[in-house]
Amino acid sequence: MKAYTISRYSKKDLLKLSEVDRPAIKPNEVLIEIHAAGINQLDAKIKSGEFKMMLKYQMPLVLGHDVAGVVIEVGVDVKRFKVGDEVYSRPSDYHIGGFAEFIAVDQADVALKPKNISMNEAASLPLVALTVWQAFMEKAHFTKGQKVFIQAGSGGVGTIAIQLAKHLGATVATTASRGNFELVKNLGADVAIDYRTQDFENQLKDYDLVLNSQDSKTLEKSLRILRPGGKAVSISGPPDPAFANEMGMPWLLKLIIGFISRKVRRQAEKLGVGYSFLFMKANGQQLSEITKLVEQGVIKPVLDKVYRFEEMNQAFDYVNSGRARGKVVVQVK
Q1: Residue 103 contacts residue 34 (beta carbons within 8 Å)
Q2: What is the pLDDT of residues 242-255, one digit of tens each?
Q3: Running DSSP on this structure, what letter comes out for residue 311?
C-alpha cells in the first residue's frame, strides 16, 4: 500500500511517499480502508522530535492520528464492528499511521462514523474532540454555569471546545483575530478578544477554567484570570508529574518533567488555582459519545481545507503555518 513515511526526526525533511506492507490485523483489531485523514500539530511535533523522549517510535514511521474510512476486515475477537461499517478513530500511541491507504486499529479505539457528516468531516474530529472531552470531563470536571476561557478559538481544538462548552452550559470567552470573530461567535463564544490588539488578561477576571493551547507566557497570564480554586488545563505543556506517572516514565524522566513544570506549578499554587497537563488518549467509547453529539447537531466539524493524498506535504506545511481555521484534512480515497 502507499503511505507517507519519515525515516528520522526532522523539521525540514518532507514526508516520503513509500510502498509499505498492508497491516496484518490482530484478533482484537479491524482493518480500515482510509478514506480521509486529519492532520494535527501533534504530527508535526512528533516529526520534529519534540516528543522523542516520551514516545519512542521505531523508524520508518507513518504519522497520522485521525482517520475515517470503511472496515474491510475484522479480527476473530472483534464483536463491535463488521465489514462494511463506516468508522472513525484516533488510533492509540504507537499504533498511529493515518497517512496511508489502510490502517489496523484496536476495536477499543474505533467508533461508528456520525451518519450526518462526510468522511472528510469525520476525519477532522477524533483527536481534537477527544482532547476537549478529556479536558472538560476528566481534568476539569466541568459543571454547568462555569466561565471558560478557550484560547485560539478558530483553531482545530478551539472550534470544538467552544461548541462543547456552550452545550454544557458555560459562558465562553476566546481569543481570535478580528477576521475570525464571526466564526467563533457563530460557534457560541460570548466574548471574543482580538489577540493582536487586546490583552485578554485585562479583559477577563474570575474564570473557572482555562483551556491553554499556547506558549508559557500565555499560560502564566491565564493563571491570573482564574478565580481562587479555578483550573488551567494545558494541552501544549509543560507536562507535569501526574502525566509522567500516567505514562509510567522512568525516574530520571519524571525528575526532568517535574523540573520543567516546577515554575508554573508554583505559580498556580501561589494563586490558589489548579494546573494540569493533558496528553489525550485514544478512546472509542468517548468517541461514540461524540458521535451522538454530532448527530444531534451539538458539534459541527469546521473544515478549512481538503487536500488530495498526493498533496500531503502541502497540507502538512499549511497546518504548520498556524493559519488554519478549524481542521485540515487529506482525502485519501
Answers
A1: yes
A2: 988 988 888 888 99
A3: G
* C-alpha span between 299 and 327 (Å, rounded): 14
Residues in the chain: 333
Q: What one-letter code names the amino acid at 130?
A: L
Q: What's the confidence (pLDDT) of residue 268?
A: 97
DSSP string of 28-57, one letter each residue: TEEEEEEEEEEE-HHHHHHHHTTTTTT--P
Angstrom distance (rounded) from CA 37 to CA 324: 16
How far apart, in whole angstroms, are the C-alpha atoms of residue 208 and residue 200?
15
Rounded distance, CA 30 to CA 280, Å? 22
Query: In the prediction, which pLDDT does 80 show?
Result: 95
> pLDDT under 70 in the chain at which residues?
none
Of the chain, the end-to-end C-alpha distance in Å amounts to 13
Supply 168's cell numbers.
454544557
Q: Which of 51, 65, 60 is nearest to 8 (CA)?
A: 60
Residue range 268-311, pLDDT digits in tens: 999 999 999 999 999 999 999 999 999 999 999 999 999 999 99
Q: Provide the CB-side half-sphere exposure for 322 (13 A, CA).
A: 5
Q: Residues with Cβ < 8 Å from 5, sequence gap 6 or more?
A: 15, 16, 18, 20, 60, 61, 62
d(CA 5, CA 121): 24
Phi, psi at 227, each rounded to 5°: -75, 160
Q: Around 188, how many Cα atoms within 13 Å sit in the side-chain half-sphere?
A: 21
Which helix (H) or strand (E) is 201 found in, with range?
helix 200-203
Residues 6+ apart with CB under 8 A from 230: 206, 207, 208, 209, 210, 273, 274
CA dihedral 139→66→325→274, nearest 10 degrees, is 10
